[in-house]
Amino acid sequence: MSKKKIQSVGVRSFGKKADIFFNVFLAIFALSCVFPFVFVIIISLTSEQSLLTNGYTLWPSEWSLDGYRYLMDLKEQLLQSLFVTVTVTVVGTLINTTFTSTFAYAISRSDFVLRKFFTIACLITMLFSAGMVPNYIVMTSMLGLKDTIWALILPMAISPFNVIVMRTFFKRTVPDSIIESARIDGASELRIFGQIVLPLAVPGIATISLFAALGFWNDWFNALLYIQSDNLIPLQYLLMKIQANIEFMTQNASMGSALSSGAEAIPKEATRMAMVVISTLPIALSYPFFQKYFVSGLTIGGVKE
Question: Which residue ranges does UniProt annotate as crossing the membrane (predicted)?
Answer without folding.
Answer: 20-45, 78-105, 117-137, 149-170, 190-217, 270-290
